[in-house]
Design brief:
There is one protein chain. This protein is an alpha+beta fold. It is built from 8 helices and 13 strands. The longest helix has 15 residues.
Length: about 260
């Protein structure tokens, strides 16, 4: 980390002084003691708070949004999940790093993260802000160059509302999100950031079914949002990659009671 023209460089990203102060404050927080320093700093990012109808109501740090004490009071934030298929129709999965604060070591869809409370990522027209966030995180987590996967390659389909408590450690952390689903089919080069991604693999539908069976037997960890989406929606999209826009809807699919 070094100072240059009143900005700091942190984990290969340029951030403002105010953002750095928030990150440093987060790092000093006792609830985050003992976690990976890079992941702790990312907990200072400002997520987008929303109501049940996905209307923006404000912002809060990633840490604040993911504390179960706030989730239990109804705090809800915006997220996205990318499902990237190659030209053979195989889905790219990642295994989350053991350094992750929530759901470490779990297999999940290609990329799952949050648009930030910034002008570029708040923009709603055609979910353009969410798509920009997805490009940013695909590059950060998997090294996928935005030149290889453009905004036009990312197709927004629908939204999913879910709540899940962290695993394997429960009680402190969780997720409560309205999750924008983005689908793409493109061959790309993958260079994982090992602080984010432990491993990655491409799977067929049958291979994914076998992974889900292993998770049911307790022999594999799968994130709860990916499991819900895979069980209820994914196969319909997967079978229509040739005409994916026909799968688009304006719903918010409710997978929780809140």
């Amino acid at each position: 980390m070094f100072l240059c023209k009143k900005t700091w460089i942190l984990t290969n990203r340029e951030i403002t002084w105010s953002t750095l102060k928030k990150a440093l404050s987060t790092m000093a927080d006792s609830v985050l003691h003992g976690y990976d320093d890079t992941q702790v700093a990312l907990m200072g990012e400002e997520c987008i708070l929303i109501d049940r109808n996905d209307n923006v109501t404000g912002s809060a740090s990633k840490k604040t949004c993911h504390l179960m004490e706030n989730i239990n009071k109804g705090m809800l934030h915006r997220a996205f999940s990318v499902f990237l298929f190659n030209s053979d129709g195989h889905l790219l999965l990642q295994q989350r790093s053991q350094a992750k604060i929530t759901f470490p070591g779990h297999f999940t869809n290609t990329c799952c993260s949050h648009p930030l409370h910034t002008p570029a990522e708040l923009q709603d027209n055609g979910a353009i802000g969410v798509k920009r966030a997805a490009q940013r995180k695909l590059q950060h987590e998997l090294g996928i160059d935005p030149k290889q996967l453009s905004i036009d390659n990312l197709h927004y389909l629908t939204r999913v509302h879910y709540l899940a408590e962290n695993a394997p450690d429960r009680g402190t952390w969780g997720e409560h999100e309205i999750d924008y689903i983005l689908i793409a089919q493109k061959d790309v080069d993958v260079t994982p950031n090992l602080n984010e991604v432990e491993s990655y693999t491409y799977v067929s539908q049958e291979q994914l079914r076998k992974m889900i069976e292993k998770s049911q037997e307790g022999n594999l960890l799968i994130t709860p949002w990916f499991r819900l989406i895979a069980d209820r929606l994914l196969m319909g999209w997967w079978n229509n990659l040739h005409n994916i826009q026909q799968c688009r809807d304006s719903q918010i699919h409710r997978f929780c009671d809140q």
